[in-house]
Amino acid sequence: MTARILAVAALALLALGACDNMASQPRDKTWRPANALPDRKVWPPVPPAEAIAREDVARPAPPLTPALLARGQERFAIYCTPCHGYLGEGDGMIVQRGFPAPPSFHIDRLRQAPTQHFYDVVTRGYGAMYSYADRVASDDRWAIAAYIRALQDSQRVAAASLPDEVRRGLK
Ligand code: HEC
Q1: Is any atom of ligand 1 closer than 6 Å to the C-beta of 146?
Q2: For 114, left (φ over 0), alpha (ψ -120 to 50), or beta?
Q3: Which domains does the chain have, with CATH numbers?
Q4: Ligand 1 in contact with 68 (CB < 6 A)?
Q5: Distance (Å, whole) CA 78 – CA 57
Q6: Is the CB–ligand 1 distance for residue 82 below 6 Å?
Q7: Are the CB atoms for 72 and 146 separated by under 8 Å?
Q8: N or C: which end of the chain has fewer CB within 10 A?
Q9: What SS3 state is found at 99?
Q10: pTM higher than 0.85 for the full model?
C-alpha cells in the first residue's frame, strides 16, 4: 500500500515537473523592438501615404491627364487583372482557376456605360464582385475608371491611324 502511494506521489511529481518545463521553454517576445530600421522603429504595416482613411468620401473626377491614366493602369494591374485580365476581357488568372467570369469590358453595354458606372462598381461592388472601397481610394477609382475607358478605346483603333513606332510594335 505504501509502495502504491509512493508510486502515485512520484508520478504526480513527474507530471508537475513536466508542467514546469512547459512554462519555462524558450519563447518569442512579440513586442521586442524591431531592428529592421536604423532608428529601431517598427516598419508601419501600411505606408501612411497609401492608407485609406475610413471617412474617405466620394470626390469629383480629377482632370484627365497622362499621369492619371498611368496611375489607373498601375492600380488596374494590381486590383483588377486577377479577374478581368490585362485587356479587360474577363479572363484573369482567378477566372481561369474557376472564379465566376466577369463580362468583357468590350461588350456594347459596357462600352456605352458612363465612366461613372466603373467608378460605382469599384466603390460598391457588383453582383459576384465585392467592393474595393476600402482598398482603392476615390481618386484611384477615377484613375482606374479612366483607364478602363482607354482600354475600351484601345481595342477599336484602326491600325493605320497609329504612329509608325507604335504600329511596328504590333503583332
Ligand atoms: C475577384 C475577381 C474580381 C476582381 C479582382 C475584380 N472584379 Fe470586377 N467583376 C468580377 C465579376 C465576377 C463581375 C461580374 C459580376 C456579376 O455580374 O455578378 C465583375 C464585374 C465588373 C464590372 C461590370 C459591371 C457590369 O455592369 O456588368 C466592372 C466595370 C468591373 N467588374 C470592374 C472592376 C474593377 C475596376 C476592378 C478592380 C478595382 C475589378 N472589377 C476587380 C470580378 C472581379
Answers
A1: no
A2: beta
A3: 66-162 (1.10.760.10)
A4: no
A5: 22
A6: yes
A7: yes
A8: C
A9: coil
A10: no
Half-sphere exposure of 66 (CA within 13 A, CB side): 0
Fill in the amino acid letter for 84: H
- Where do we find the cell 518545463? 21
pLDDT in tens, the chain (171 residues): 567 776 666 666 555 555 567 777 777 666 555 555 666 565 555 556 666 666 567 788 999 999 999 999 999 999 999 999 999 999 999 999 999 999 999 999 999 999 999 999 999 999 999 999 989 999 999 999 999 999 999 988 888 888 888 888 887
> Could you tell me the distance, in angstroms and rounded to a whole number, from the CA of residue 131 to the centre of ligand 1?
9
Do 101 and 90 meet the contact criterion of CB atoms below 8 Å apart? yes
Q: Which residue has the cell 472601397?
A: 133
At 61, the amino acid letter reads: A
